[in-house]
Amino acid sequence: MGNSQSSQIRVAIIGLGKMGLLHASLLSVLPNVKLVALCDKSSLIRKICRRLFHDVFITDDVEQLTGLDLDAVYITTPIPSHFSIAKTIYSKRIADNLFVEKTLAANYDEARKMCELAQASGGVNMVGYMKRFAVTFNKAKELLDKGVLGDLVSFDAYSYSSDFVDAKEGSVSTSRGGVLGDLGSHVLDLALWFFGDLKVDSAKLVSIHSFSAEDVASFKVSASNGLEGQFDISWCKKGFRMPESGLAIRGTKGKIMVNDDELRLELVNGESRRWYRHDLNDSVGFLLGAPEYFREDKYFIECVLNGCNGEPNFSTASKVDYLIDQVKREA
Amino acid sequence: MVDRLTLLVGDNPFHGISHLSQERSRLRDDTITRADYAAGLVATALENGADGFMFSVDDATLSILRIIREKAGKINLDLYAIVPYAYDYVRLATQAGGITGLARKVAKEIVVSFNIKAMATGLRAAVTIDPKALLKTYLTYEISRIKSSQGKRMNLKSVLLHEIITDMALALNLDWIFKTHIEFMLKKGIKPGFETRNFAFLVNKFKNWNIDFKNVVIATPFNAVGFQMNPSREECEKALVDVRAPSIIAMSILAAGYLKPLEAVNYIKTLPNLKGVVVGVSKENHARETFKLLKERFNS
């Protein structure tokens, strides 16, 4: 493993879209990280990066990252390319530690192969399900683990945004895939984190802007302990200027309503409580985008430095790909 | 604290934003996002002690300026403009499939705007991929949008770079973005500004880069509960002392509605080196009462 033992993590980022730039920025403020290389297919992006970044190797070819003594690589390219890039990184021994933006892969078959490759490499692997690092969802997990709701009975989960409400015909790119893998995967990951494995019982997908990808998804799930749940996911929902995910969880002792901004607990004994981000120590070392991105990157780097398992790792995250495949099959 | 604070009306509620919770903004009446209603709230705030309007430059806020120009032409109004309106650009990038798609759309917008000056500098910048020239082209374009909507009694005091640009540039150590913006704005007689959610980090960088706080305006959160103050309220307060110039505009003083106005004011009064405060309002009585209180506590 490169130089990580001397506490300086050498990192490359592949894919310099919105998420690539975000991670490049956050990694740059972490004291034990050195941004060594950037890789992007777009010649325009590479030209701009050459003007912006000094002492950073810039290329369009993943294989050229070989020999840079990298400790970790971030893959922030469109989802369909994740598998082939990860395969190259592992097979060429470019780096052992890999962070992949969600979803892990384009389907469960590829996700499973990525898990095998990661296991063979022995390094740290993690997927960018950053909602796990949001203070509200973290608090919900803490309450659920304490059994505050008693036996869990049912839940309703949603992920909404207004990103495509007023999208003009022809202005929508299909390169980012459908709403399930994009916006919806966060709430799927949260549900799997909160409740464990889920099985899809029925599903409906609706395409509005393109025949090749879904814009709205609704489906019902169940767990082996009898828990039943329902998901509603759309990026064509009015009133959601910023993407928002949330869950209403009902148990024998009460219910929890949690989303990106707040958490409400209502118990059957009449007790109730509400936490906003303000109440949950939401400050971070550096805020860009949302506090959870900083926590996520800091955690991944700490895992690499300490050689410990990072969560959600590939194996955990592959369950989201499995669930998405199930939804598509059932629809 | 300086003798007199600049009191600014913020535009967040006019975009349907609540940093407390999105649900709260959805529960509000849609009226708030109507330009004529928002213009009325700005006018009420000005009648009750506000000095100006801080806004992200987009079609909605420019409409508000045009309505104020037409209906309340005799009101003096200082303008503090934030560019770019990041939300719009992120949404466009989402729809267009990424940053390259967005770049094409913005270039097209500038060409369609027929801003000759912006087009001329933009052409040179595009050919050479010169980031400084691209930044100046973009700023020229945004200033021209504001000028075409502002009235005679409106004074464009400051153009601030949005937090997403400021904070990314801070993280990537891109001092040229700050220096280019400062130099370009000062030449135009406009105070250069920066919005940030990482105030302590910015103060440290500006010291290393020898940027004089007297020449700039910084808009950043300050509130009694440390909401959006990073890495902590204490570190931001320490950095504020270090600034040694009244150049800071405190944002989120109500912590997005979490604090009562009086609690907010009592905390703000303890802080040094403030130039002003900015507060968003969503109702007529809210505009009246809030700015009356701010005027009474800070400027009487």
Description of the structure:
The complex is a heterodimer of chains A (331) and B (300). Chain A is of the alpha/beta class. Helices cover 32% and strands 25% of the residues of chain A. Chain A starts with 8 loop residues before the first strand and ends with a helix. Chain B has a single domain (6-91, 155-298), classed as NADP-dependent oxidoreductase domain (TIM Barrel), CATH 3.20.20.100. Chain B is 52% helix and 15% strand. Classes of the chains: A alpha/beta (331), B alpha/beta (300). At the A-B interface, helix 1 and helix 2 of A face helix 1, helix 4, helix 5 and helix 8 of B.
Secondary-structure map:
The complex is a heterodimer of chains A (331) and B (300).
Chain A: E1 9-14, H1 18-29, E2 33-39, H2 43-52, E3 57-59, E4 72-75, H3 82-91, E5 97-100, H4 108-121, E6 125-127, H5 135-145, E7 152-160, H6 180-195, E8 199-206, E9 216-222, E10 228-234, E11 244-251, E12 254-259, E13 262-267, E14 272-276, H7 291-306, H8 314-330
Parallel strand pairs in A: 1-2, 1-4, 2-3, 4-5, 5-6, 7-10
Antiparallel strand pairs in A: 7-11, 8-9, 9-10, 11-12, 12-13, 13-14
Helix pairs in contact in A: 1-7, 3-4, 4-8, 6-8
Chain B: E1 6-10, H1 22-27, H2 35-47, E2 52-56, H3 59-71, E3 77-83, H4 86-96, H5 99-112, H6 116-128, H7 131-149, E4 154-161, H8 163-171, H9 175-187, E5 191-195, H10 199-208, E6 217-221, H11 233-243, E7 248-251, H12 261-268, E8 274-280, H13 284-298
Parallel strand pairs in B: 1-2, 1-8, 2-3, 3-4, 4-5, 5-6, 6-7, 7-8
Helix pairs in contact in B: 2-3, 2-13, 4-5, 6-7, 7-9, 10-11
